[in-house]
Write a structure and sequence with these properties.
heterodimer; A: 120 residues; alpha/beta; B: 132 residues; mainly alpha; 2% strand; elongated
Chain lengths: 120, 132
Amino acid sequence: MQSILAVDDSASMRQMVSFTLKGAGYNVIEAADGQEALDKARQQHIDLVLTDQNMPRMDGITLVRQLRALAPFVATPMLILTTESSDEMKAQGRAAGATGWLVKPFDPAKLLDVIRRVIK
Amino acid sequence: MENLIIDPTTAAQRGAARECQAIAADLERLKVLLAEAGDKLLASFNVVGAVAPALARDERERRQIGGAVASAVTALQFQDMATQLTAHAQRRLAVLQDLVATLAQETDPLLATTRLQPVKQAGMGAGSIDLF
């Protein structure tokens, strides 16, 4: 079973993401901010990272940048799921190493379609 | 008897400060209402989401229930977006309150200290997707 690290400081968003991913057969590891996600990512195999941008302690772009610096995450797909929709923020995400940028709210079928396209 | 002279600028500042306080109180109430409604909806969704698929009598009903659950997943993300918008409005209001308190200030702290609005979506239709 493939594992997805779902990162969001909103409990309701984590719940919606987990519901969607678990329903599609993925193992979901949840984290409430970038720092918690980074700590959990160092301890286990992760096949894909799906992270919010605006979070306390560590934001999504910083998380992506820090994970990309770790050998196990050089090629791991990382998607940013956020309310931020400006081209400037998307460019920052891309420069940090994000695989894609999804604007909230997400449609479950479209989210799963994107994940299936990028996950190995 | 001495005439009571009211400085119109001071009166306007007091009025503006009072309105800001009222808006701040309304935003706090809105946050509480959103949190309560969101939590109750999520609890209900968990029950319905777990039980409803098993109630389908045929493939058509299974698809109908699946579609309804998917729509609920998209709609229930309102709490996160509304919470962010409320927090943003509170930050802007705090800046406005500072501005009222220092009306003579030449700089514009409203523009200087607040970020662009983080939530631009006006509805609950699914957002865009960009793969790099």
